[in-house]
Structures are given as structure tokens and as C-alpha cells.
């Protein structure tokens, strides 16, 4: 007995279509256009993609403006003469070193800056040069942890001495060293009275005491800065 060879996909499709046509003829109905064959990919390739724009947008449809993140600031509104930035609305747990982390890039730029605290969530960043303040503002205007804007309040505190101290008097000067150099070059030995020798020694002691006091002040200032960063 001869076995019927198995039908391939195309033969099965043609056989299916012939059976369907025979059923239509027997029922007396007119033949209609056959529905697209789900196994035939040639028609789909000719049709091409129906939706050229992905994401559910029809051709000619404009996306909403809300799809872009926009920051409401105008760089040209910054006044070039302003060298103070107002930073506010940051967490109350912020310390001095947190603000330094934001502006550390400008610490050595044209004199750097200093920080003046106003309250727990606001501080003023005082720059030495307006160009540095402008750059810091434009670079950090979109900061996510705080609000930053040019400061437009009173600036009387800039002229005041922060320690309310009187200007230091000019240190006392002496020609003692100059005389020693001249006399040593000429090979001349000048006799000095005990009073003159005592006065010169006192001047030297005062100078040493002043240098020691400045050294101690510098050391204390460095320790205070380290303590502020470690808070």
C-alpha cells in the first residue's frame, strides 16, 4: 500500500482554501474575497508598519511640554556686580562642611568665598569677585538640595569688622638693625649706654611676643575650622 506523503505548509494552506470554497458553493452563497492568510508574511511586508511613530502618538501629534524638565531661571537676570549668593531651603541638619562641599570648586578661584550663616536653613556665600559668584550661581542654580539665588538684601555687614575690633595700630619701628649693618660694613664700633641696650632688648622681646601671639591665633583658627568640618 502506497503511503501519501505529508503535505507542506503551502499545500495545507491551499487545501484549506479549497475546502472553504466548496462549502460556500454548496450553501449557494457567492464567493467572497478570502481573508488574509495568517501564515503568509508577504502581504505584511508589503503593507509595512501601520504605526510609524511609537509611543502611541499619531502623525502630526505634538508632545506635551510637560515631557521636558524646565527650570525657571534667567541667567541674564544675574547682576554682574553682585558677589553674594543666598542659599536657603536646605535641610536643618546641614553643617558648614555641607555648604563647602557645594562650593568647594570655587574655594581657590579669585579669592574664594566665605560663609555667613543667617539661620538653620539659610546662609550667605560671600565671594571676593563677582565673576566667581556668577559662575557659582549658574553652575548650581538647579541644585536639588537647596535653593540658590543672588542676594539683594542689605550689605552693611560687609563693611563692619566681624569681631568689632578697632584697627590695629602701626607696629613700632626702629633703626637698630640698619645701624648695625652700617656700622658692621664700616668696621666702626659704636658705644651704647645701658639704657639704649635695654630699650633695644625690650623691642626685640615685644617683636617675639607678637610673632608668638600670631602663631597661636593661626593655630586656634585652624583647629576651629577642623572642628566645624567634623561637626
From TrEMBL:
SUPFAM superfamilies cross-referenced by the UniProt entry: RNA-binding domain, RBD
Residue ranges of domain Thc1 RRM in the record: 87-155
Domain of life (superkingdom): Eukaryota
Compositionally biased spans, kind Basic residues: 56-66
MF (Gene Ontology): nucleic acid binding
Pfam families to which the protein is assigned, alphabetical: RRM_Thc1
Region (Disordered): 34-68, 192-231
Bias kind Basic and acidic residues: ranges: 43-55, 206-224
Protein name as it appears in the record: Thc1 RRM domain-containing protein
UniProt organism field: Rhizophagus irregularis
Amino acid at each position: 500500500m502506497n503511503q501519501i506523503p505529508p503535505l507542506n505548509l503551502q499545500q495545507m494552506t491551499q487545501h484549506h482554501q479549497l475546502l472553504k470554497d466548496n462549502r460556500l458553493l454548496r450553501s449557494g452563497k457567492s464567493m467572497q474575497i478570502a481573508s488574509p492568510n495568517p501564515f503568509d508574511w508577504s502581504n505584511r511586508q508589503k503593507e509595512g508598519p501601520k504605526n510609524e511613530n511609537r509611543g502611541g502618538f499619531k502623525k502630526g501629534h505634538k508632545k506635551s511640554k510637560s515631557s521636558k524638565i524646565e527650570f525657571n531661571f534667567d541667567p541674564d537676570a544675574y547682576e554682574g556686580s553682585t558677589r553674594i549668593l543666598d542659599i536657603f531651603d536646605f535641610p536643618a541638619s546641614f553643617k558648614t562642611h555641607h555648604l563647602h562641599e557645594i562650593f568647594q570648586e570655587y574655594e581657590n578661584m579669585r579669592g574664594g568665598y566665605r560663609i555667613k550663616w543667617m539661620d538653620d536653613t539659610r546662609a550667605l556665600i560671600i565671594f571676593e569677585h563677582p565673576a566667581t559668584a556668577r559662575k557659582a550661581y549658574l553652575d548650581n542654580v538647579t541644585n536639588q538640595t537647596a535653593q540658590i539665588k543672588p542676594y539683594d538684601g542689605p550689605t552693611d555687614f560687609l563693611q563692619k569688622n566681624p569681631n568689632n575690633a578697632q584697627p590695629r595700630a602701626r607696629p613700632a619701628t626702629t633703626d637698630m638693625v640698619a645701624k648695625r649693618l652700617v656700622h658692621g660694613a664700616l668696621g666702626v664700633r659704636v658705644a651704647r649706654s645701658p639704657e639704649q641696650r635695654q630699650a633695644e632688648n625690650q623691642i626685640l622681646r615685644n617683636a617675639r611676643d607678637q610673632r608668638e601671639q600670631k602663631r597661636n591665633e593661626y593655630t586656634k583658627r585652624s583647629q576651629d575650622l577642623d572642628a566645624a568640618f567634623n561637626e
